Amino acid sequence: MLQRAFTILLSAILTLSCSAVSFGQKKGDIIGTWVRVSQSESSTAESAFESINEADYLKLHFHENKKLKIYGSHAANGIETAYKYRKGKITYGFDRAFEIESYSDSSLVLIELEKVGRREDFIKHYYLKEKVFLNRLEVGQNDWYVSGVDTVYFASKKLYPQFMTTRYPDFHLYVHNAVKKAYSNGPNYMLATFSIESSGDVKDIEIWHHTNAEADAGVVQAIQNSTGRWQMPLLNDKDVTVNMHIDDRYVKRDISQGLEIALNQNEVFENSADAYRNSVLRIARYFKLQDYESALEYIDICEQIAPEEPNLLYLKYKAYLAMNNEEESWEFLALIKGSRLSFLVD
């Protein structure tokens, strides 16, 4: 039964691409970057390659020097490990072993055998060459905005700059380490956006969720210092400017209690941390698209999670100011002046 399933899948792959081959590959044939688009116990190659499942995303970069770099997210730097390639098998780590069922210039199918008790099971991993994968992703009308004479694209899987540094594993930790000492005791949350030109120069740094004046200055300085450390993507083989975001959640204790990093669902916004973060990010995007009504809708969503949060009052002030609604903007300005964010309007 298992062999029959393998035969059916191989036949489907051969139909998909006339250049597909099976177990006679050479090691050099898999060198390069592959993005997993699906994994399944039973699926046809056609359906797997037609769908892109967010949860299944994984990127593998095979180097010629027997090194493999593994990326768990398009936004993360990879973890490097050694791999072996022999007789149609790839092994890496302590016990990961894959049969290469089939591949072409654009697609790759790996089969991982698993033992469940006395029964041997398998799962198929479907990969596309990174360039093929990126070419399939589209840029929508709300995925870019105009800033002066420049067209700026929001960061996405298709257009994601890579932070190039050896000291820190990713950009989040780079910024976090630069500002954590400036955070106040208790919950802190920061979200900022900035644009990177094709040259790697950073511009248009904006903070959309503030903590205090010292931390804000540290965030701006850290982002500015990242100039020249970015590997920029291309759109249709052309240089582009990309707008990035960075956020940080941190709970700072008293000295007697020590410090605690809180990066997932935590007491910053309890179990709604991800919903809050995504809403603030949408607010920033709608501001750049000059869709202030939509921005106000997401501010209202945030207020249900964090009532009386002064950052939301400030965002309302900015929205009504941009809409030339002086009466509403003055009302929120007065509230901000009496809050911990008064430094923003003094």
Provide a descriptive summary of the structure in words.
With 346 residues, the chain is of the alpha+beta class. It has 2 domains: 2-134, Lipocalin; 138-341, no CATH class. The chain is built from 9 helices and 18 strands. It has helices spanning 2-16, 45-50, 130-136, 171-179, 213-224, 273-288, 292-305, 310-322, 326-337; strands at residues 32-40, 58-62, 67-71, 79-86, 89-92, 96-103, 107-116, 119-129, 144-147, 150-154, 162-163, 186-196, 202-209, 230-231, 234-235, 238-239, 241-252, 260-261. The strands form 4 sheets. An 8-stranded antiparallel beta barrel has the order 1-2-3-4-5-6-7-8. Strands 9, 10, 12, 13, 17 and 18 form a 6-stranded mixed sheet that branches. Helix 4 runs antiparallel to helix 5. Mean pLDDT is 84; it is low at 1-25 and 261-266.
Give the overall shape. Answer: elongated
Flag low-confidence runs. 1-25, 261-266
Number of helical runs?
9
Sequence of strands across the biggest β-sheet? 1-2-3-4-5-6-7-8
Describe the main β-sheet briefly.
8 strands, antiparallel, barrel
Radius of gyration, whole Å: 24 Å
Percent of residues in helices: 25-40%
Instruction: Supply the number of structural domains.
Output: 2
Beta-strand residue percentage? 25-35%
Structural class: alpha+beta
- What order do the SSEs take from the amino end to the carboxyl end, as H and E? HEHEEEEEEEHEEEHEEHEEEEEHHHH
